[in-house]
Amino acid sequence: MIVVMRPGCAQKDVAHVSEELERHGYTVKPIIGVEKSIVCAVGGEEHKNIDFLEQLRAFDGVEDVLLITKPYKFVARETRPERSVVNVGGVLVGGNEVVMMAGPCTVESEEQVMETAAAVAGAGAKILRGGAFKPSTSPYSFQGMGKTGLEILREAGRRYDLRVVTEVMDPRKVEMVAAYADVLQVGARNMQNYDLLREVGQSRTPVLLKRGLSAKYEELLLAAEYIATGGNEAIMLCERGIRTFETHTRNTLDIGAVPVLRGLSHLPVVVDPSQGTGKRDLVSALSMAAVAAGADSLIIEVHPNPDAALKDGPQSLTIQGYLDMVPNLARIAEAVGRTMAVGSLV
Ligand code: PEP
Ligand code: MN
User: Fold this and answer.
1) Do 197 and 60 have their domain in common?
2) More confident residue, 333 or 69
3) Averaged over 149-154, what is the pLDDT?
4) What is the pTM of this model?
5) Which residues pair with 225 in a beta bridge?
6) Are residues 210 and 322 in the same domain?
7) In this structure, are 180 and 39 located in the same domain?
8) Does the pLDDT of residue 286 top 90, yes or no?
């Protein structure tokens, strides 16, 4: 790291900064300039000294502290240049194939899930999505079917050879949900629920970590770091739109997040254009954009009758809408040197 001292600061300030850095394990080299001095420090583990670094900023004579390594380690590309592939029960996310995850926002009934699962599996999807425990902004809206919902998802997965991704909200339910799910989804609203992150870090089930509504990339990656430090490195990062001043769409889908996150981290990047836009007729265009930008996987909401959906109907594709979209995505995937399964229904 480089500590930039204020112009004309006292010698004793430089000495104090140097001593404290040494005390934290750094090898220190102060460079005293005519106008400005800097203190170069190497060798300490910056990500483990994060609290000290914050304090350092307020030391007498300090103008700025510039880090030269990232505040996260396990999930950083600089630590592991090769890309991670997450193995979801034999389905590889982060390899050459762009993997489709699709299904209803929320499990509503066995018929609804089976009909959707049959269609998306027939269109090449490998992973079935569906919420059994739903995070709802209003306590009056549908909260999900709970354990019954998990059982329906599991059975649909078995019947149509799909892996299952579903949300877990409560740290106390991680083990229970993992008994049914192949991927534990940590929702946007829970990206900074550190108890939950620690708990899924203890699990050996892969995790889909969604970006918080107003989370910076670094905050998302630090949330992933919580999971990884628990020992679970099977993490997929998910861009699902952020809150901006724009109100035309439910969220603003940040396509730029795809190359940025793939540059900063070795973890696979998934894009959710359904929550990302809130509008069915935008899902196809933004899915294509996500694949073009390098997404490793898409997670798409599909409902047999979106107008009757209990949740997120306006952003859910009809089955036909999904079937129509897939061949276009496959063409884009091919154009960027990837593959995508299309299935026999398409
Ligand atoms: C969802 O996938 O239905 C969902 C609630 O996602 P998010 O946490 O991104 O809002
Ligand atoms: Mn939803």
Assistant:
1) no
2) 333
3) 98
4) 0.94
5) none
6) yes
7) no
8) yes
